[in-house]
Specification:
GO terms for molecular function: ABC-type transporter activity; ATP binding; ATP hydrolysis activity. InterPro entries: AAA+_ATPase, ABC_transporter-like_ATP-bd, ABC_transporter-like_CS, ABC_transpr_MalK-like, ABC_transpr_MalK/UgpC-like, Mo/tungstate-bd_C_term_dom, NA-bd_OB-fold, OB_MalK-like. This is sn-glycerol-3-phosphate import ATP-binding protein UgpC. Its EC number is 3.6.3.20. By secondary structure, the protein is of the alpha+beta class. It has two domains: 228 residues, 3-Layer(aba) Sandwich (Rossmann fold), CATH 3.40.50; 113 residues, Nucleic acid-binding proteins (OB fold (Dihydrolipoamide Acetyltransferase, E2P)), CATH 2.40.50. The chain is built from eight helices and 20 strands. The strands form five sheets. It has a six-stranded mixed β-sheet, sandwiched between helices. Helix 2 crosses helix 3 and helix 2 packs parallel to helix 4. The two termini are 31 Å apart.
Length: 358
């Protein structure tokens, strides 16, 4: 698959502060890539470098095999959707959509055709004569996406476009963006700090920290085989449980527990020494299947959080807080004893010092 966007050895510094460091990234044609990370990790900065809104300190940027490192934003063949809708309040929706096209001196018939197509795709045909003040937040964001859409470009850049919306609207528009990508097949690079958005939208996710990419892989790979403890902790809601201990004689020992490592796939042969065991709340076995688990232990329930479809149960293992996801209909009470089963084939082991996956 040929690349739509390619970034080679990219550095960006503001004075002595390095924001992006020797960053390399390839985005395939038609791919939906999500840049994910906490605030200040460099994801929006990287997007702005691709858009040409920031000048890089070193490295090169290619879009469709053309070196655009020093090209103007208007020359890069990109459409950008920002967190703020940035609509012209005095213009109608139609005026907002056509503004850039008129400046580009496109024929009237071509402008009308592009607006009609974008309005149909985004289901905003009935809003074309309204001004932004008469639109809801979701409708405004649709118009902002439409303004990028009418440019008819190969690469779309989204900078946290849904973060100003309420939860229900965010979920609805997330579906619309996924459908938009399926219908258009254009390359999309999407910045978010919301892992649910990342997991549901992405073909691949780049998890960033400190101006570097920690892991670049499919959502399934990042969820199931996180490359280090940071990625493991960042992905998943609720986050992964961690137990400190050490590996000895084919078992993970924590406190007075010895958990057999049968079924665990080591990245480079069995390890020994200090380690951290990570297991997701949804991978802890409860109920009738506990007896079939390779390891079982009893815990005392300290807190219960019903969420409807699930019940989150808090307890402790070897003095460390431990969370279990159970069925929403589970009958459980605070102070009750609960038997848990652990299957290490779904767990992650990390070296305590380097925090890298073992």
């Amino acid at each position: 698959m040929s690349n739509s966007v390619e970034i080679k050895n990219l550095d960006l510094a503001f004075g002595s502060v390095k924001v992006l460091q020797d960053l390399n990234l390839e985005v395939g044609k038609g791919e939906f890539l999500v840049l994910l990370g906490s605030s200040g990790c460099g994801k929006s900065t990287l997007l702005n470098c691709i858009a040409g809104l920031l000048d890089v300190t070193a490295g090169q940027l290619f879009i469709n095999d053309e070196n655009v490192t020093w090209a103007e934003p208007s020359e890069r063949g990109i459409g950008m959707v920002f967190q703020s809708y940035a609509l012209y309040p005095q213009m109608t929706v139609e005026g907002n959509l056509s503004f850039g096209l008129k400046n580009a001196k496109l024929p009237k018939a071509e402008i009308a055709a592009r607006i009609k197509r974008a309005a149909e795709i985004l289901q905003i045909e009935s809003l074309l004569k309204r001004k932004p003040a008469a639109l809801s937040g979701g409708q405004r964001q649709r118009v902002a996406i439409g303004r990028a859409l009418v440019r008819d470009v190969d690469v779309f850049l989204f900078d946290e476009p849904l973060s100003n919306l309420d939860a229900k609207l965010r979920a609805d528009l997330r579906v619309e963006i996924k459908r938009l990508h399926q219908n258009l097949g254009n390359t999309m690079i999407y910045v978010t700090h919301d892992q649910i958005e990342a997991m549901t939208l992405a073909d691949r996710i780049a998890i960033m920290r400190g101006g570097q990419i920690m892991q670049l892989a499919s959502p399934e790979e990042i969820y199931g085989r996180p490359v280090n403890k940071y990625v493991a902790d960042f992905i998943g809601s609720p986050s992964m449980n961690f137990l400190e201990g050490h590996i000895k004689d084919g078992a993970f020992e924590t406190g007075d527990l010895s958990i057999p490592l049968s079924g665990y796939e080591f990245s480079a042969g069995p390890a020994t020494g200090p380690a951290t065991l990570g297991i997701r709340p949804e991978h802890v076995i409860t109920g009738e299947l506990v007896g079939k688990a390779p390891f079982q232990t009893d815990v005392s329930v300290s807190l219960i959080e019903p969420t409807g479809s699930d019940t989150l149960v808090d307890c402790e293992i070897s003095g460390s807080p431990f969370r279990v996801r159970m069925d929403g209909q589970a009958k459980i009470a605070v102070g009750e004893k609960l038997q848990l089963g652990l299957d290490l084939s779904k767990a992650s082991l990390f070296d305590t010092k380097s925090e890298l996956r073992l």
